[in-house]
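TA notes. Do not distribute before section.
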Amino acid sequence: MARIILEPIGSAREEALASADYEANRAAMRSRAERVIAAREEVEQGWGEKYIERVHKKGKLTARERIELLKDPGSRVFPIQSFVNYGREFEGGKVSPGAGVVTAFVRIHNRYTVVIANDNTVASGAWWPLTPEKIERAQEIARRLRLPVIYLVDCSGLFLPEQARSFPGPRGAGHIFKMNSLLSAEHVPQIAGVFGDCIAGGGYMPIISDRVYMTEQAYMVIAGAALIKGAKSQQITSLSIGGPNVHVHLSNCADFRGPDDASVLSMIRRDISLLPSSACDYYRFGGESAPPLFPAEELEGIFPADHRMPYDMRQVIARLVDSSLFWEVLPDRGKEMITGIGRIGGLYAGIIANNQLLIDHPTDAGRKRPGAILYKEGIAKISQFSRTCNDDGIPIIWLQDISGFDIGAEAEKEGLLGYGSSLIYTNSTNQTPMITVLLRKASGAGYYAMAGSPYDPVLQLSTPITRLAVMEGRTLAIGAYRTRLDDDFEIMAEDPAEREEIVRGMKEVENRISGDMDPLRSAALMDTDEVVVMSDLHAYLQAMVEMCYQGTGYRRVKNPRIWSLHDLAALTE
């Protein structure tokens, strides 16, 4: 029978990198990480202490306080889409931190769930532009991984001044309810707690859930009292027409009532305990979780401060996999790519990563060529590895740091377009969960080919040094001004004023593209799911791999004895 033999990878920090270089890299990384941490703290404050106090005066908890009561004691919450709308202003100069909703992975009774909680400190939990898309993204992740969904509803409906950017469209607010329906149709548990305002779309969101709980001051209405007063001249309150007295005892739109937030959260926790337990222990196949031999926190010092400089990707992998043990598959082919299997949290995961170091040219002895570029053999290698992981039911982690595909006459003669299309087809049709991490560069079609966001990974993470764009700013500026440059990319203009205009224009293009590469900007636009500091990357990946194995019966997971990977390795030894 075939056995999985995991071998040591990486080395101690002192052997891998000179101390001076490590400390310089670490200082540069921490500077960028602190910006991300500060932005996260800003988002988590919502509209600030004044609005937090207003929630407390109503006898309610904030969204994040509710999540703290909901989660297992001592467990960690993993937020996603934290920075949606970050830095964006709306009507009247208002902001919507996190698009007014908290979405996160939360462990309850040792099972991961997806929690979607209206931030009641931001316009009473209203929906802003991109709020629906953020909710739908969380629902889609839950659907793909069959994770229970918990809605903590405290929503005053659409933020009406911006309704044109959140109400219509194929992924507008109404699509949330289609996602509710699809989750229900596919047997994904949904539980809703209603804690306050639940107006219009907010009223529809919990109804399809398997359980709906209401607190004594919660109400669900198609239209609030103010609108009804205006339309029908009736003197009523929203609580009187849509409170628990109506919906628990008359309309049957809710199931149970509780006196306050804490009691309803306790009921939700009880419901989760009744669901099937996590399958992770079963799928560890006798293994146990272990931390990397080399601390994950050392990732902060591995990446060079200058994004143009290479580093050893195997040192990164060594700080992500259990006990720093790894089975590298096809190590002698397509050396610009690293493919292999490791355990993360005791569970098997495939890893596909860009080798940043110089590699031997396959046909020109003694010649080197840069890594971080997709060449023919590397594309074929990761296509086959990706297909084989899919066949075996192994989740795939893509560690991207890619400049793109090889270009030029040799690349075209070798048919890179065709090989690239094969890779794209593979990643588009895979059923096994794929998690994409944009470590640093995520450029051009290479970003697409390595399971970038357009190819529907279950989750895409960025880091404080991620550079997501078609190409680097300087390269793009040269392309934009190509007709005014010679073959050596020197400005051809002889007139000093014209030359100065070209220099200024190219610099403006370069600066704008560099600004667009900002990972917080990408996250604000939902081009990535979360920006994670390097010291947190291992924890996020461990949680994600556990989620991939938590459920049973909805996707193929083969015993490691009969993996197709063994056949692939045997045929290429």
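Switch to the second chain here.
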Amino acid sequence: MKSASNDRPPRGGATPNWDANDSAQLYGINSWGAGYFNVSDAGEVQVNVDFEGNPVAVSLMEIVRGMHDRGLHMPAVLRIRNLLDHRVQVLNTAFAKAIEDGGYRNCYRGVYPIKVNQQCHVVEEIADYGRQYNHGFEAGSKAELIIAMSQLRDSEGLIICNGYKDAEFIELGLYAVQMGIPCFFVVETLSELPIIIERSRALGIEPLIGVRIKTTVAVDGYWSQDSGDRSIFGLSTASLMRLVDELRQAEMLHCLRLLHCHLGSQIPNIRNVRSGVLEACRFYAGLVEEGAPMGHIDLGGGLAVDYEGASTNSTHSMNYRLDEYCVNIVESICETLDPLGIDHPVIISESGRATVAYSSMLLFNILNVSNSMPVTTPGELPEDCVEMLKNLDGIQARLSVQNIQECYNDAVFYRDELRELFHHGQATLRERALAENIFLEVVHRITSMLPELNRVSPELQHLQEQLSDIYYGNFSLFQSLPDIWAIDQLFPIMPIHRLDEKPGRSAILADLTCDCDGKIDRFSTPDGERNVLQLHELKQDEEYYLGVFLVGAYQETLGDLHNLFGDTNVVNVAINPDGTFEFAREFHGDSIADVLSYVEYEPKQLQENFRLVAEKAVRSGKISVAQRSRIVQAFRESLHGYTYFENH
């Protein structure tokens, strides 16, 4: 069944005995939504923004209608600017409160790691809104350093330079220092130190040096192998002592002012955070004892996002709150340094995922459904059909709750036997088709009876997954959600409307790419991970919209051009205190010409090549001149069209 398009997305109708609260519970939105998202009484997902105690809610469907009115069609990335601002705010205020409550005698300085989402409008918004908190940037390349130096709005905001650094990288950072920007070079390997020393002497600019150390604390979660002794970045204790000695010999030990310790990424367990900070503080104290002035401790990233809303220490969740995270860091530093009489350092964190994840979502429409329901079979089988087909059909008459397992076993046996007959030419194609449909009818009836059983065997428990529909979405997994394919990341996925209707289909999602990996068949639910997602039946002449939430971190920058599907449309929306909203920025997605140019094709040359092909067809009498004109025009229009499915 295929959905048809309307100029504006429609509104649906309610289902008796099902309301918005049931949908909210089914999809877990009140847990993973963190207060930013919920389901309205009208059955639509809405985004919530607080204006100094005055809550405002806006329906995502109203924003989608506004997008369609402006010619911005699916798929699209929707960013809510208010949520990005709020994440910067809560991170800084949570640390400020922990510092005040804990009697900490210094301040917090957040830096945003540009690699998490390098999109210009994201970085600009963090720079603009973060100015009031002296929020800075982390740069891991020359390109990112150029962004940071040009976008930083506040002279007290820090720039932390990580990654491998050549002479040009170091010169840029030294010029930033000369202009009054506190720009730290974090030494990742000893080979960087001679370059820093040589360039600083050549330019006559003293550097701000940090050092990244390896800790022995291994963290939970997907990136556990990258923490502890096996971390690919940072200096060992022996290398750290060599760095101190070389700086002392160069009479530059006074430039060592920062300790960097990246505990891990998406750390789900708060105990890992506390253990890592305690060990980092020991290194910090040791460097102070060596004579380095220090003054800054950078604890890197790791602040998690609860993609599941489960509040556990599983990979895609977290068993702590933001305020608890901040308190643990403050307390751990005080606990280690106070007995030693060492001044409290400036606390730095590089929280990228937790800053940008909530603000972005991928919206797309469903184009088609491959239904698992059997095609209607005749009431009576042909008299001359093979015996196996009659045996399979006979299961329906004797199926009951008492013999479910036996009937399932028989159905599988007879179906497989008939397939063998077909392979050997002893059953017809029509007989095989009848067998497949009868088998589906039997399995659907068995599935409907499972709730009546006291105990369900493992093979019957998986029937719902085997019977799931395939909903084909207008998106590319590899372009917009690469972490699902690459690292089995879970993102919250749900319909954004019709949530006052009970979803009656179990489904997996497939994208537009002709790739067996272009699918989503793992979903987070309040009851744990599932292999199917509950969705609604498609309605004729009505679009059906899904949203993938919490995708602001990494997804846009990691996407590739599988099947040459390019960047999607992007909309930045700002919500106003009166409940209205503005399309602050609109970015049309890649055209076919754009993506072809990425892979070294010249669009103008392609047009000329095709014109020659069409002209040859005219000369050979295959098409007329008028037909040639229409064909060449269609080619030209397609070349400049959207790479995704378009309803016309």
